[in-house]
Amino acid sequence: MAMDTRERAETRSPAEDDPPSLDSLLALPAEEVGRFDIAALNLACAVGLPGAEGLDIRRHIATLDAWAAEVDRVTTRGVRHFRNNRAEFEDSEAYWRMLTLTSVLQLRYRVHYRPDRIDEMDWRDSRDVLLHGLLGESRAGTCPSLPVLTVAVGRRLGYPLRLALAIAHVFSRWDGPTGGERLNIECHGNGMVAHPDEHYYEWPVRWNPETHAEEARRGPNCIYLRSLEPAEELAFFLCQRAHCLEVAKRWDEAIVTYQSAARLWPHHPAYPRYAGELIIRRLASAQQTYAGARSPIGCSISSRGRRRSSFWRSL
User: Fold this and answer.
1) Which strand (E) or helix (H) includes residue 213?
2) Which of 253, 266, 267, 288 has its CA 20 to 30 A from that of 259?
3) How far apart are CA 21 and CA 41, in angstroms?
4) Cα-based distances in Å from 218 to 19, 98, 209, 290
5) pLDDT tens readout for residues 271-302
């Protein structure tokens, strides 16, 4: 694979453009979502959420541009070492480039997985699940946000990076042109590892025969281990937003956001279900409030977390 590390996916920096608003993105046909920087899409989904007070999207985009420039510099400097030591890098230029990218993010910019969220996800603070947490002072994120950072930086270098899902997991993927190299990239901890697709049949949740059969029936519309289209990436970000809204008890906004995600990814079975479940709970709440009873929708965060565990299993 021959690639100029200075080549960019776009002719000008995303920071030079006005970031799109969430309303403008939701008005787009699905086929036009790909015109926008993945980071701008993700950050637009954070606007107005708990943990996103004072969000400056342009500043975050500029930070990504600067990080990509540093990755480019380090990569260019290391080309000769790679060419003389290909065996150290699985004899793969894609592997070497991604190892360089993730190393710069982790070692130079202190990007890391938030340790207290490893065993239990929480949507009370949007910084844990959307990109601004990694671009802020803490440099911390979780499974939904770290792969997005990798893809956002790599695309600025012209790398063919996509997001992909496993059960209860999100990862980034180097997905070259037809017949080209494909690598599943994990960089949630220290360093990087590239697993084959079969790894995700066992981790983080083991596939049962029903899952295999259902994915086979879905064919090209399968949910797992398929590189996502831009509209599906935005739908995934909207779902994170909706979870944050639901935890914040902004239920009407959450319902609309789930419905928007379902429109962009109509084949995903979970998104319309989330909206339907919340509508039913809202109706039950209204009925009980009318009768003078306490609303069941005012659940604790812990019970909300247990209910939402089904979300990770249906990612």
Assistant:
1) helix 209-218
2) 288
3) 9
4) 35, 31, 14, 43
5) 999 999 999 988 887 777 655 543 333 333 33
